[in-house]
Protein backbone atom coordinates (compact mmCIF):
# COMPACT_ATOMS: atom_id res chain seq x y z
CA UNK A 1 0.00 0.00 0.00
CA UNK A 2 1.37 3.41 -0.93
CA UNK A 3 1.92 5.90 1.87
CA UNK A 4 0.13 8.86 0.32
CA UNK A 5 0.12 10.98 3.48
CA UNK A 6 3.88 10.67 3.88
CA UNK A 7 4.42 11.37 0.19
CA UNK A 8 2.49 14.61 0.42
CA UNK A 9 4.36 15.62 3.53
CA UNK A 10 7.69 14.97 1.85
CA UNK A 11 7.02 17.35 -1.05
CA UNK A 12 7.67 21.04 -0.30
CA UNK A 13 4.35 22.35 -1.62
CA UNK A 14 5.04 25.81 -0.25
CA UNK A 15 7.87 26.09 -2.80
CA UNK A 16 5.79 24.85 -5.72
CA UNK A 17 5.78 28.23 -7.44
CA UNK A 18 9.56 28.50 -7.19
CA UNK A 19 10.03 25.00 -8.58
CA UNK A 20 7.83 25.78 -11.53
CA UNK A 21 9.52 29.13 -12.16
CA UNK A 22 12.77 27.25 -12.53
CA UNK A 23 11.16 24.83 -14.93
CA UNK A 24 9.59 27.63 -16.95
CA UNK A 25 12.69 29.77 -17.31
CA UNK A 26 14.78 26.73 -18.13
CA UNK A 27 12.49 25.98 -21.07
CA UNK A 28 13.54 25.86 -24.68
CA UNK A 29 12.12 28.59 -26.86
CA UNK A 30 10.23 26.23 -29.14
CA UNK A 31 7.27 24.10 -28.11
CA UNK A 32 7.84 20.39 -28.04
CA UNK A 33 6.11 17.93 -30.31
CA UNK A 34 2.50 17.61 -29.24
CA UNK A 35 0.32 14.58 -28.61
CA UNK A 36 -1.11 12.72 -31.60
CA UNK A 37 -3.49 9.84 -32.27
CA UNK A 38 -1.68 7.14 -34.24
CA UNK A 39 -4.71 4.95 -34.87
CA UNK A 40 -8.26 4.44 -33.62
CA UNK A 41 -11.17 2.17 -34.49
CA UNK A 42 -14.40 0.76 -33.12
CA UNK A 43 -15.71 -2.77 -33.05
CA UNK A 44 -19.20 -4.06 -32.26
CA UNK A 45 -18.94 -6.67 -29.49
CA UNK A 46 -22.14 -8.19 -28.06
CA UNK A 47 -24.20 -5.13 -28.94
CA UNK A 48 -21.68 -2.55 -27.66
CA UNK A 49 -19.30 -0.47 -29.78
CA UNK A 50 -15.86 -0.52 -28.21
CA UNK A 51 -12.92 1.76 -28.87
CA UNK A 52 -9.32 0.79 -29.50
CA UNK A 53 -6.64 3.43 -30.02
CA UNK A 54 -2.90 4.06 -30.01
CA UNK A 55 -1.68 7.51 -28.95
CA UNK A 56 1.76 9.16 -28.91
CA UNK A 57 2.54 11.13 -25.76
CA UNK A 58 5.86 12.96 -26.27
CA UNK A 59 6.50 15.05 -23.15
CA UNK A 60 8.48 18.27 -23.05
CA UNK A 61 11.45 18.47 -20.70
CA UNK A 62 9.51 20.89 -18.50
CA UNK A 63 6.66 18.41 -18.09
CA UNK A 64 9.02 15.51 -17.37
CA UNK A 65 10.84 17.59 -14.76
CA UNK A 66 7.55 18.57 -13.16
CA UNK A 67 6.43 14.95 -12.87
CA UNK A 68 9.76 13.90 -11.38
CA UNK A 69 9.41 16.77 -8.87
CA UNK A 70 6.18 15.23 -7.60
CA UNK A 71 3.67 17.40 -9.46
CA UNK A 72 0.60 15.36 -10.53
CA UNK A 73 -0.60 15.75 -14.11
CA UNK A 74 -4.06 15.11 -15.52
CA UNK A 75 -4.37 13.83 -19.09
CA UNK A 76 -7.80 13.70 -20.72
CA UNK A 77 -8.91 11.47 -23.58
CA UNK A 78 -12.08 12.95 -25.06
CA UNK A 79 -14.40 10.87 -27.26
CA UNK A 80 -17.52 12.01 -29.11
CA UNK A 81 -20.16 10.13 -31.07
CA UNK A 82 -21.67 12.41 -33.73
CA UNK A 83 -24.81 11.89 -35.80
CA UNK A 84 -24.28 13.32 -39.28
CA UNK A 85 -26.98 15.59 -40.69
CA UNK A 86 -27.41 16.65 -44.29
CA UNK A 87 -28.04 20.36 -43.87
CA UNK A 88 -26.84 21.00 -40.31
CA UNK A 89 -23.72 20.57 -38.23
CA UNK A 90 -23.25 17.05 -36.82
CA UNK A 91 -25.09 16.51 -33.56
CA UNK A 92 -23.14 15.19 -30.56
CA UNK A 93 -25.15 12.32 -29.12
CA UNK A 94 -22.55 11.06 -26.66
CA UNK A 95 -19.43 12.52 -25.08
CA UNK A 96 -17.01 10.62 -22.86
CA UNK A 97 -13.91 11.99 -21.11
CA UNK A 98 -11.40 9.46 -19.80
CA UNK A 99 -9.32 11.19 -17.13
CA UNK A 100 -5.91 9.91 -16.04
CA UNK A 101 -3.58 11.20 -13.34
CA UNK A 102 0.15 10.62 -13.73
CA UNK A 103 2.22 11.11 -10.59
CA UNK A 104 5.64 10.23 -9.21
CA UNK A 105 5.58 8.63 -5.76
CA UNK A 106 8.86 9.59 -4.11
CA UNK A 107 8.83 7.04 -1.27
CA UNK A 108 8.36 4.02 -3.50
CA UNK A 109 10.22 5.61 -6.45
CA UNK A 110 7.37 4.48 -8.68
CA UNK A 111 5.20 6.28 -11.22
CA UNK A 112 1.51 5.96 -10.45
CA UNK A 113 -1.10 6.06 -13.20
CA UNK A 114 -4.65 6.47 -11.89
CA UNK A 115 -7.77 6.07 -14.03
CA UNK A 116 -9.86 8.74 -12.32
CA UNK A 117 -13.19 7.63 -13.85
CA UNK A 118 -13.01 4.43 -11.80
CA UNK A 119 -10.36 5.19 -9.19
CA UNK A 120 -8.16 2.34 -10.41
CA UNK A 121 -4.41 2.76 -10.26
CA UNK A 122 -1.25 0.93 -11.25
CA UNK A 123 2.39 1.61 -10.51
CA UNK A 124 5.32 1.50 -12.94
CA UNK A 125 9.09 1.47 -12.39
CA UNK A 126 9.74 4.33 -14.81
CA UNK A 127 8.00 7.10 -16.72
CA UNK A 128 8.30 5.33 -20.07
CA UNK A 129 6.36 2.32 -18.82
CA UNK A 130 3.57 4.52 -17.43
CA UNK A 131 3.34 6.46 -20.70
CA UNK A 132 3.22 3.22 -22.68
CA UNK A 133 0.20 2.09 -20.67
CA UNK A 134 -1.49 5.48 -21.08
CA UNK A 135 -0.88 5.33 -24.84
CA UNK A 136 -3.18 2.34 -25.38
CA UNK A 137 -6.97 2.33 -25.19
CA UNK A 138 -8.40 -1.19 -25.27
CA UNK A 139 -12.05 -2.20 -25.53
CA UNK A 140 -13.44 1.02 -24.06
CA UNK A 141 -17.27 0.86 -24.29
CA UNK A 142 -18.70 3.83 -26.21
CA UNK A 143 -22.32 3.28 -27.16
CA UNK A 144 -24.77 0.42 -27.57
CA UNK A 145 -26.30 -0.58 -30.87
CA UNK A 146 -29.72 0.14 -29.36
CA UNK A 147 -28.83 3.82 -28.89
CA UNK A 148 -28.27 4.29 -32.62
CA UNK A 149 -30.71 4.78 -35.46
CA UNK A 150 -29.45 2.37 -38.10
CA UNK A 151 -30.87 4.62 -40.84
CA UNK A 152 -28.47 7.43 -39.85
CA UNK A 153 -24.73 7.90 -40.31
CA UNK A 154 -22.36 8.40 -37.39
CA UNK A 155 -18.81 9.57 -36.89
CA UNK A 156 -16.54 8.91 -33.91
CA UNK A 157 -13.79 11.33 -32.97
CA UNK A 158 -11.03 11.26 -30.39
CA UNK A 159 -8.53 13.76 -29.03
CA UNK A 160 -6.28 13.97 -25.98
CA UNK A 161 -4.73 16.78 -23.97
CA UNK A 162 -2.77 17.70 -20.88
CA UNK A 163 -5.14 19.59 -18.57
CA UNK A 164 -3.52 22.85 -17.50
CA UNK A 165 -6.57 23.81 -15.44
CA UNK A 166 -6.01 20.76 -13.21
CA UNK A 167 -2.45 21.74 -12.31
CA UNK A 168 -1.82 23.01 -8.77
CA UNK A 169 -3.07 26.60 -8.52
CA UNK A 170 0.38 28.32 -8.29
CA UNK A 171 1.45 26.68 -11.55
CA UNK A 172 -1.51 27.49 -13.78
CA UNK A 173 -0.73 31.12 -14.75
CA UNK A 174 2.85 30.23 -15.71
CA UNK A 175 1.77 27.08 -17.57
CA UNK A 176 -0.69 29.10 -19.64
CA UNK A 177 2.23 31.31 -20.71
CA UNK A 178 4.58 28.49 -21.65
CA UNK A 179 4.26 26.64 -24.99
CA UNK A 180 5.98 23.66 -23.34
CA UNK A 181 2.73 22.94 -21.49
CA UNK A 182 0.36 23.12 -24.46
CA UNK A 183 0.27 19.42 -25.21
CA UNK A 184 -2.80 18.22 -27.07
CA UNK A 185 -3.80 16.41 -30.24
CA UNK A 186 -6.10 17.41 -33.07
CA UNK A 187 -9.32 15.47 -33.48
CA UNK A 188 -8.92 12.04 -35.07
CA UNK A 189 -12.21 10.91 -36.62
CA UNK A 190 -13.69 8.01 -38.56
CA UNK A 191 -17.08 6.77 -39.73
CA UNK A 192 -18.87 4.27 -37.53
CA UNK A 193 -19.58 1.06 -39.42
CA UNK A 194 -23.19 0.06 -38.78
CA UNK A 195 -24.50 -3.47 -39.27
CA UNK A 196 -26.78 -4.16 -42.21
CA UNK A 197 -30.46 -3.60 -41.45
Q: What does this molecule look like?
A:
The chain is of the alpha+beta class and 197 residues long. The chain has 5 helices and 9 strands. Strands 6-5-4-3-8-9 form a 6-stranded antiparallel β-sheet, covered by helices on one side. Strands 1-2-7 form a 3-stranded antiparallel β-sheet. α2 packs antiparallel against α3 (61-68). It starts with a helix and ends in a 6-residue tail after the last strand.
Summarize the model shown.
It holds the Pfam family DUF4390. The protein has one domain. It has five helices and nine strands, in the order ααββαββββαββαβ.
Helical/strand content category = alpha+beta
**Order of strands across the biggest sheet?**
6-5-4-3-8-9
The pLDDT mean sits at: 84
Shape: elongated
In total, the number of strands is 9
* Count of distinct structural domains: 1
Helix and strand element order: HHEEHEEEEHEEHE
- What low-confidence regions span 5 or more consecutive residues with pLDDT below 50? 1-32
- Using the CA coordinates, give the radius of gyration: 19 Å
Tally of DSSP helical segments:
5
Helix share bin:
10-25%
Assess the beta-strand content as a share of residues.
35-45%
Distance between the termini: 52 Å
Major pleated sheet? 6 strands, antiparallel
Protein name: Proline rich signal peptide protein
InterPro entries: DUF4390
Pfam family, one: DUF4390
Amino acid sequence: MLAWRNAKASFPWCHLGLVFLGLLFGAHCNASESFNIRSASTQLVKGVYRLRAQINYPLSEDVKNAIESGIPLIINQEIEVLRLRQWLWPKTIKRIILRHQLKYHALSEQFVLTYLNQGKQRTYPNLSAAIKQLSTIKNCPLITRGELDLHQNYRIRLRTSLSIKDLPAPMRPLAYLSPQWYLDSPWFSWLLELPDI
